[in-house]
Write a structure and sequence with these properties.
Length: 432
């Protein structure tokens, strides 16, 4: 795909207005009775009206059934998604009516209207979830290549007194890297890694680390393309002489449709992958601090569940936790299915891995945790309140934020992750 086409934004009001306008104009052309004899116009409008109403009802009903009843997506779908479903099927119904016993030009308009209506509904839902910023992101053309690594020969100067050399880059570097499952044998997709300017010089300081995790379905790129964490960390670097945490986003899923739940099971030894293989790779390849205070695990949705799960399970490894819209416990289907798939049918193993159990049975006086959730997220907001209260009761230093006007989407993820990491910046002793 040409770069100019790949970079076309699909979340801006200009793009949305153009797509919506094309779909509306085509549908208006299909509704107007051009070529319909006068005595049949009443029947024509009746057929279109009934088709549109039936289509809207079917579309709304399907979203309700799949999202609210079957809980296929694991989130509460917004009114915008319901309206998109209703509008999609209403538009398709109008187009189909125009394909039956009509003139050739009306059929031609109907054929063009079908993809236009599909596209309109698609960008409407995408804007609501804030998932794909550009056209290239939709087809996987991210423009991000292999990581250009810096030096691992770290400076002996304390981080708070380190000063950048004159040739330090002004922005960080983003790239992909293969982190092998040497111990876990987990077949992970490429990780995405962001290096701050301070990591790209000859003698970098030992930097903090953030291990970030996407939601499910998802991939490591989500935290950058939809979550914009590299932009947020560039701002941290500009305020601290090029110093910011190294952000490593490994793949904890294996594929978009998989959910190994960050445990060791027949679905994959993900816990070992994240706590052994990924950690060893970071220590071997990047100039990082070994102090637990400087290590944070962060994630959104399923990744948020993993963050509190592993942060509470490995307090000697992680001093910071950022949980954005995480769940109460690992989940892969129903509770019974989760126990069967991820815990070898052991209820005891399932309970032991649940963050609430860990928080109830251990103390965390040296851990800082930030919890965020969409202010309009009726399903996950009570979970955040309960989980953060349990973390505080377990001795963690806790901060909470309900992101105004957002739900379980990447508006929440991008703002919540940036906010949560920002709460930890003062603990890292970055230079001023």
């Amino acid at each position: 795909m040409p770069s100019w086409l790949s970079s076309v934004p699909i979340e801006t009001m200009r793009t949305l207005a153009i797509v919506y306008a094309i779909a509306v104009v085509l549908l208006i052309a299909l509704v107007l009775p051009f070529g319909v004899v006068a005595r049949r116009r009443a029947r024509w409008y009746a057929a279109l009206g009934l088709a549109a109403l039936a289509g809207a009802g079917i579309g709304w009903g399907l979203v309700w059934l799949l999202g609210d009843v079957d809980d296929l997506f694991g989130v509460q779908l917004t009114t915008v998604v319901h309206l998109a479903g209703a509008g999609l099927f209403a538009g398709l119904a109008v187009a189909v009516v125009n394909l039956v016993r009509t003139r050739w030009w009306r059929k031609a308009i109907a054929v063009v209207a079908i993809p236009a209506v599909l596209l309109g509904a698609g960008v409407m839902i995408n804007e609501d979830f804030a998932y794909y910023p550009t056209l290239g992101d939709v087809v996987g053309d991210t423009g991000v290549g292999a990581l250009v690594a810096g030096s691992i020969r770290a400076s002996a100067e304390p981080l708070s007194r380190w000063r950048p050399p004159a040739d330090m880059p002004t922005e960080g570097s983003l790239g992909t890297v293969r982190i092998p499952g040497t111990v876990s044998h987990f077949a992970a997709r490429d990780a995405w890694v962001w290096l701050p300017p301070a990591a790209l010089v000859k003698d970098p300081p030992r930097l903090p680390v953030v291990v970030g995790l996407s939601g499910q379905p998802g991939q490591p790129s989500d935290l950058f393309l939809a979550g914009h964490l590299d932009t947020a960390l560039d701002a941290v670097a500009r305020a601290h002489h090029g110093v910011a945490p190294i952000l490593v986003v490994p793949d904890q899923l294996g594929s978009p449709s998989s959910n190994p739940m960050c445990v060791n099971s027949r679905l994959g030894n993900v816990r070992t992958y994240l706590t052994v293989d990924v950690r060893h790779w970071i220590l071997a390849h990047e100039p990082v601090s070994v102090n637990r205070r400087d290590w944070t695990i962060a994630g959104f949705s399923e990744g948020g569940t993993c963050a509190i799960q592993l942060g509470a399970g490995y307090p000697a490894m992680f001093g910071g936790i950022v949980d954005v819209s995480g769940e109460l416990a690992p989940r892969n289907g129903t509770v019974a299915q989760t126990i069967a798939r991820g815990f070898h049918h052991s209820k005891a193993a399932y309970r032991a891995a649940a963050p609430l159990h860990l928080l109830a049975t251990h103390r965390y006086p040296r851990t800082t945790a930030a919890f965020a959730v969409g202010g309009d997220d009726q399903r996950y907001r009570p979970i955040m309140v309960r989980m953060s209260a349990a973390a505080a009761a377990a001795g963690m230093t806790v901060q909470r934020w309900a992101v105004p006007g957002t739900a379980h989407d990447w508006h929440t993820a991008s703002q919540g992750l940036a906010w949560g990491i920002g709460r930890l910046v003062p603990l890292w002793g970055l230079p001023r």
